[in-house]
Amino acid sequence: MLKMSNKDGLHGSHFLLGLSLLHFLRSGGSLIAYAEANTNNSNRGHVAHADAITSNSIAHADANTSKKKKVVVLGTGWAGMSFLKNLNNSTYDVKVVSPRNFFVFTPLLPSVTCGKVEARSIVEPIRNIIRKKNINVSYCEAECIKIDPASKKIYCRAARATLNTNSKQGEEFEVDYDYLIIAVGAQVNTFNTPGVEGNCHFLKEIEDAQKIRKNVIESFEKASLPNLSEEERKKILHFVVVGGGPTGVEFSGELRDFVNEDVLKLYPTVQHLVKITVIEATDHILNMFDKRITKFAESKFLRDDIDVKLGSMVTKITENEISTKAKGSDKTTSTPYGMVLWSTGIGQRPLIKDFMKQIGQGNRRALATDEWLRVEGCDNVYALGDCATINQRKVVEDIAEIFKRADKDNSGTLTVKKFTDIMDDVIARYPQVKLYMKSKRVRNFVDILTEAKGNAAKETIELSIEEFKTALSVVDSKMKNLPATAQVANQQGAYLAKCFNRMEECEKNPEGPPRFRGTGRHRFHPFRYRHLGQFAPLGGEKTAAQLPGDWVSIGHSSQWLWYSIYASKLADKSIGGVGLDTAFYLWEGRQWNLSQSNRSLGLVFGGPGGFGPLAVFSVN
Asked: Which of 310, 318, 509, 538 is least enclosed, having the fewest CB within 10 Å?
């Protein structure tokens, strides 16, 4: 573990501050988008939207536009923006449709909730992204409410009224497409638990983080009032987190750091009354991580006085109490609380549910696509990110075709030589084969075939179709759905953009694996997810990292690795903002951040006072 002294931390803060100032003059566009997104009465926001109308009009006036294939991208999250940033084929007319006119760096949302990072620092305006493209791209601030794949249209509702027209809020319009990219993400899954919608906070959008931040501050202010009993103060300062995944764990760690580092100075009379509870339905928190990380996280939370209730399910939430039931028990326990964060999983948006019913996927949890991210049953519609799942084809479904392709002399048996000739094609088409080989720690898939013949020498092996089927039937056991993470969505967007960049070329000269059903080759290689590792900040400047190669690191060194990797993913202007926020946090704690938050709340929540985030930096 890398240990850092306070002196090291101070030098680190100077370095971050210097880095931030280098980017200072280049950081401005994100403030415009953030202000525009959070106020309907700002002149700046209206002017930006009017400019959108002008740019769209110019785009439609271009005679060449009508000759180009129309690509419509729904959503401005990880998948949609990764696709847009990597698309460089000028033969497309691209239109982005989303009610949110900025991209949010979601991994840093928990850091916004307690003041370590400012909200404006983790947003990037869509128009800044579009401005850098050398292809024809336009943006509509609207919400897609219906998809009509038969007529290749989407139906949209304007997000708000515009300045230079007499249109009303919610005006609807149609958009035609040749290709549709669905990347709208997902919404919080409440599992139909009574009271969740009206009494809980969520953490998926920038507004969610600001609401939590406001609630945390107000909870301590309210608990400091002189006319309350100690029991009332305990209730107000009881923060409950439902869900022991990465988001819930990171928020709990951020909140505990805030209590330990800042509440003692800001609210000394109530610091000892704070209680943080994490409720997890399974047997462990961070159960998608390595067991070593899970064990460390649970022991750290125990040392930090964070109450972790494992095997506990929430049955109901009222305005004042949360009811839980332990696994295997019928007894329900009700506990007073001050604030609840619900972070238990994702569900599909109404748009996706309706679309799934239209195309016969109404009984699925997510929109099913093939390995090329194409929605099943819709040739020109693609879906990626949290709203979709890849329906990977099983090897056993194509056993007969694979056997026939390998058995070129029609002998009815396969030798090692015959299978070796098509092995690379099989691995390219079915990713579960490679995963199975990795789990068995074998380099050559032929070694797996020998299991069907015992200890026979490879050269003498001959398999019938039934023996071949038995040997390969175990391979599909390694099939699993990809996690709903930013890493997956980002890779999918980049992959699909690469396909679109080479669409015409690959139509003429396909570069994918051979078709086992039919003739010829697939146009492209199927999507392959490459897991680059995962991080779980645990508070106290300690992060758990699980990286490829079964490498696990926990401690301060992992925290700085987490900082550096996320910094590399941020836009230049955001690096300056996050770096400056982090520098002030390391130098003075969250006091500066929280004071700025209080001043900017007037802009976000419509409260009085404050100059808003636009006044923090000069925007030219």
From this structure: 509
Residue/partner pairs of 284-291 with CB below 8 Å, 24 or more apart:
284/244, 284/310, 285/244, 285/245, 285/248, 285/249, 285/310, 286/244, 286/245, 286/246, 286/249, 286/536, 286/544, 287/244, 288/245, 288/483, 288/534, 289/534, 289/536, 289/544, 289/546, 290/546, 290/550, 290/552
Chain centroid to Cα 107, Å, comes to 8
If we measure between CA atoms, which residue out of 235, 214, 82 comes closest to residue 607? 214
Task: Return the structure tokens found at 34.
Answer: 């953030």
- pLDDT tens across 344-356, in order? 999 999 999 999 9
Cα(430)–Cα(476) distance, rounded to whole angstroms? 9
Q: What is the pLDDT of residues 180-206, one digit of tens each?
A: 999 999 999 999 999 999 999 999 999
CB burial class (10 A; 0-12, 13-18, 19+) of residue 379? exposed
Q: How many residues can be counted in the chain?
A: 620
Return left, alpha or beta for 133; rule: phi > 0 is left, psi -120 to 50 is alpha, else beta: beta
| Look-up of token digits 């919080």 | 188
The number of beta carbons lying within 10 Å of the beta carbon of residue 522 is: 19
Task: Name which of 7-11, 211-215, 568-572 the model is least confident about.
Answer: 7-11
Helix (H, G, I), strand (E, B) or coil at 112: helix
Q: What is the Cα 557 distance to its own chain's centre?
A: 24
Q: Which of 31-35, 121-125, 347-351 has the lowest mean pLDDT?
A: 31-35
In angstroms, the CA 372 to CA 491 distance is: 13
262: amino acid identity, one letter:
D
450 DSSP 8-state letter: G
Cβ pair 66, 92 in contact under 8 A: no
Contacts 24+ apart (CB under 8 A), 565-571: 565/535, 566/105, 566/107, 566/108, 569/105, 570/105, 570/122, 571/30, 571/124, 571/128
List the beta strands (DSSP E) in 403-457. 414-415
CA distance 548 to 306: 30
Radius of gyration of the chain measured on its C-alpha atoms: 27
Instruction: Work out the number of other CB atoms within 10 angstroms of the CB of residue 283.
Output: 10
Measured CA to CA, the distance from residue 594 to residue 115 in angstroms comes to 5
